[in-house]
Write a structure and sequence with these properties.
heterodimer, A: alpha/beta, Rossmann fold, three-stranded antiparallel beta sheet, 10 helices, 9 strands, 25% strand, B: mainly alpha
Amino acid sequence: MVEHFTGSDEATQALPTLQARIPTVVVDQAHLVYRVHKGATGGTTPVAALRRLVKRSQAPNVREVHAVKGVSFTAYRGEAIGLIGSNGSGKSTLLRAIAGLLPVDRGAIYTQGQPSLLGVNAALLNDLSGERNVTLGCLAMGMPPAEVARLTPEIIEFSGINQRGDFASLPMRTYSSGMAARLRFSIAAAKKHDVLLIDEALATGDKGFRKRSEQRVRELRESAGTVFLVSHQLSSIRDTCERTIWLESGELRMDGPTDEVIRAYEDFSNGR
Amino acid sequence: MANTALAGPDAGLTQAQLAARHGLRVAGERPSLVEYSRRLWAYRHFVAAYANAKLVASYSNAKLGQVWQVLTPLTNAAVYYLIFGLVLAQNSIPNFIAYLTTGLFIFNFTQSAILAGTQSISGNLGLIRALHFPRASLPLAATLTQFQQLLASMVVLIGIVLVTGEPLTLQWLLLPPALVLQAIFNAGVVLLVARMGAKASDLKQVMPFIMRTWMYGSGVLYSVRLFNRLPEWATTLIKFNPMLVYIELARYALLEQAPMLNESLTQLWLVAAAWAVVAGVGGFIYFWRGEQEYGRG
């Protein structure tokens, strides 16, 4: 039954649906273009800055990057989808667009509820203690205060930041990058998301935490959410996702069962 | 195989039709104004917690910690008193030190709220890109942080006013409503500059100059009667300057003999309320219209 996936949408829609499959993310011929302000091209001297100011009024010093070119797919409730591709192939851009943080240029992206993007550089308040960041993060996800109070110890426990002494009461700026990433993931994973987008977030944790977080991703999926995972670690995609989408230079190269897509991707990477 | 089997109810639909059928929404769509206000209300706990957190964080590196909340306004008042009270010797104003500190603390509330507001979006991009919440929470939290600072400096102010020999009168009851009106005005202006500062980061550089000009136009450091020397249109304009209005209200409430530019108290209250409504509603709508832009680019 592997063929269901390979043809992407036509095939998946034509599945004999025993129970109705509910789409959570529908991407329809999405083109994503982001504009980069080239900024201080002439250096940072006052003269260059002035020239830039004058020039901006004549011709905007902006370059367009066409990051995603006409990608279409449908993600269903209960799926965990891996996104792979070489650096700069548009994976992160696509996630940001699904999260509603980047407008589509052409085409459209439809989502169920509000997808949450969990990236490695999702900074909370570095001057505050980890515990306080947990409270803030949970409130920012819209949890009622009573639930936040109930969940806070669980989240800290899950993140494992207290394994080396009481780090939860220290400011987050004292954390190692791995610890901070673990805490951020733990906060985001505490809530049931309709759609959770994870961008390389699991890569920073140590082995024990990776095991726990993969388990958590599976749980989130079972509680009827959809999970997208961007990672360069094919093993973690293999362990968590049964479907994988391969993007290459902004185009959808392949969409199907993880094993098949990863095999093709590895052949492609090695062949170069 | 699958293609020849029974087709599901979704077969043959285009992507857009499929999305519509299952009630999916366009990613990042802006909610209606009413819906947005409702969501913002649901996030009130976040606003309060964030404002508190910011207040704590701003002193987390200082040895004296929260004591600075009182020390900063005191030091500020001392410096200005040194220059304007002793060096330039302003004798025309009775109880100049109380006159000065009232104006200074009231103005400082708006000034620091606006400066914090300019960066409330651009300084929190990490949070904005990671989690989804009504973005207006951030500028409102910035205003709330400054409001808490104001309450600390009001304690200092009341101490100064009493020590310098002003009597405790019933008029003092006019201070809280004046501060509330000013807080609403501030929230509106903060929402405005937050959206402006989200795109143009140059605003951060310009803001201190705007605020300084505004301060000189609000009669903080010298007698407001000096404005009467200006051409008449300029005097009228300054009479409607929101900051001057809020400062005069506070001076009227606390001080017995402070010189006033606005003679009519009713007019003062009406102008203060009008500014609060115009800035509050206008700022909120302006900020809401840019909701889907924040964190992009």
